[in-house]
Amino acid sequence: MEPIKEPSTPLVLLSSSPHIHSGHTVPAAMREVILALVPAVLASFYYFRMSALSVILACVISAMVFEAICQKLMNRPITTYDCSAALTGLLLALCLPPSFPISLAIMGSFFAIVIGKMVFGGLGCNVFNPAHLGRAILLASYPQQMTTWLLPVTASTTLNAVTSATMKSDAVSSATPLVSMRIAESLWQTGQQATNQLPSLWNLFIGNVGGSLGETCVPALLVGGLFLIWRGHVDWRIPFFYLATVAVITGIYGGVRGYDSIFPLYHLLAGGLMIGSFFMATDWVTSPITKRGRIIYAIGLGVLTALIRLRGSYVEGVCYSILMMNMVTPLIDKYVCNISFGGGAKK
Questions:
Q1: Mean pLDDT, to the nearest integer, of 149-159?
Q2: What residues form DSSP beta bridges with 262?
Q3: Predicted model pTM
Q4: How much is the CA Rg of the chain, to the nearest whole Å?
Q5: 246 phi/psi in degrees, rounded to 5
Q6: pLDDT by residue (tens digit) across 71-81?
Q7: Which residues, 6+ apart, have CB-to-CB distance to 336 below 8 Å?
Q8: Any bridge partners for residue 165, and if so which?
Q9: Which CB contacts under 8 angstroms, 24+ apart, belong to 10-17?
């Protein structure tokens, strides 16, 4: 029997895609998203002091612990080092009021990690944005605690104050800008002037108003969002078309009803729209994979957010809009497909 001869040309080993690595890893990407949230975190410390620190630490640490426990029970390697659980906990904390009880914040991390992520199979398998799912469950379970807001300690105690100083900090309980806007709408409908009863656009822009920890300071969120776009972690189409859709719908609605010209600006700057458009709606797992699909997804987010804010009894619509569009993402990916290479059409 003749010995097997070595081939004259070297063997080519084939493996599954991807064949070209971009250099990005999951831990590195997660760390850069956390880095992009640092300005918002610093702003929350500035405006809400120790209340912000306690809520953020509780959510981040408990999220990492819950993920490690789930992975241990599922006989999987513990991967808390990839920072995905820490990022989920941080995003959840930034969506909570500064006066939120620590025990309920830990419960929110349980909902986000266990219900929103691990029951679906872990990282990359979840259907819904885990942080917003945790927030939605908390809002349904503890509506009073989730809608009790504090003015920043830097704000005047007379700005939208509805009670005297609280026992927890130097801030006072207050209405959020969106609640104030809803009151202003009722006054505008009766022909009264209500603009002077609203926080100034400047205070709304810099975050010197009541609201969740990470949603008030627009410059901090814009800096972080633009950083993610520059680093390629976020497709600009989602935040751009999301914000544009809300601006167009609220502008038309306000114009038809004769509201003040600042009406669409208030909806852009107030509430969780900025943090939702840059950090929540752009989640890699729960948003569409195609360019056209992302535009459709973003427009759907804008329509739902505007409808909930304008016609719903709940003044904020970002959280539920994102969760509803998360459910539609698989359909968008199914019916909005890129043309195969050589198909003669653009993506």
A1: 63
A2: none
A3: 0.85
A4: 23
A5: -60, -40
A6: 999 999 998 88
A7: 288, 290, 292, 293, 296
A8: 172
A9: none
